[in-house]
Amino acid sequence: MPPSAFVFELDHLLVWADVGGPEADRLVQFGLSEGDANRHSGQGTACRRFFFRNAYLELPWVHDAEEAQKKPVDATQLWLRWSGRHSVASPFGLCLRPAGPGGSIPFPTWEYQPPYLPPPLVIHVAQDVPLSEPFWFYLGFGRRPDDAGWPKPQPLQHAAGFWEVTGVRFCGPGLGRPSTVARTVTGMGFVALAEAPDHCAEVTFDGGRRRQSEDFRPTLPLVFHW
To answer: How far is the first Cα of the chain from the last one, in angstroms, to the nearest whole number?
Structure first.
C-alpha cells in the first residue's frame, strides 16, 4: 500500500488503571483538568479521561469481569490485557483515527461492534498483535477533542500549561521485536517503540519545547515531556 494511503493520526492513548481509576487523582494533582468519565455499557469497562486539543488520555478499568469475558467482547482480549497489566500484557493501548478524507485503515483489522455503539459504528481492532504490545485500534468516526462535532465540550485548558500531544514512545519487554501492525504505526513518525525491562509510556506535548518533564511512576507507568 503506498504511503499516501496511510492518512491517520492519534485519537487517544489508554493506560489501564485499578477499579475506579484512582491513579487519575495523581494527574489532577499535577495540574490536568479532568473531563467526563465514561462507562462502556455491556463491555464491562469504565474510564476517567483527560482531554487535549488533538487527542485524549484514557484511564480504563474492568468493573464487570463477566461482561468483559462474554461474546463479542472476549475477542478483544480486554479482560486479558487488564488482568495481566502487571505481568504478561502491555498496560497501554493506542487508538488512531482518520487524518483526512480518503484514508484507509492502516493495518489488518477485524470489526468489533461493542454493545454501547449504535450500528453501523464499529471499532477496528488490529489483528495478530501479541499481548506484550499496546492494544492497537482504529476509529473511523474519531474526532479531535477541539472539534465542534464532539457531543459535549471537554476541558482543554490545563494548569500544567500544555495543549497538544505530539509524540508517544512506548518502552517495555518484547517491543524490540515489533509486529507488522506496530511497524506500520511507528512508520508514521509520531509513535516510537523501545525494548526495556519495564513498561512505560513517554508522552510529549507541544514538541517538548519547554524542556520540562514529570514522572508519574510508580502510580502510573507514564512520563510527560513538554
So the answer is: 34
Question: Which residue, among 53, 156, 140, has the nearest Cα to 95 in the 3D structure?
Answer: 140
Which residues, in sequence order, are CB contacts of 190 under 8 Å at separation 6+? 9, 10, 166, 167, 168
C-alpha cell at 83: 488482568
Residue with grid cell 464491562, as numbered in its chain: 44
Q: How many Å apart are CA 26 and CA 152, to the nearest integer?
A: 25
Domains recognised in the chain with CATH numbers: 3-148+163-225 (3.10.180.10)
Query: pLDDT by residue for the chain (226 residues), tens digit each?
Result: 334 445 789 999 999 999 999 999 999 999 999 999 999 999 999 999 999 999 999 999 999 999 999 999 999 999 999 999 999 999 999 999 998 876 678 899 999 999 999 999 999 999 999 999 999 999 999 999 999 988 899 999 999 999 999 999 999 999 999 999 999 999 989 999 999 999 999 999 999 999 999 999 999 999 999 9
pTM for this model (two decimals)? 0.95
Residues constituting the chain:
226
CA 214, 215, 220, 221 torsion-angle sign? positive
Which parts of the chain are beta strand (E)?
8-15, 38-40, 45-51, 56-62, 92-98, 109-112, 123-126, 135-138, 165-172, 191-195, 200-205, 213-215, 222-225
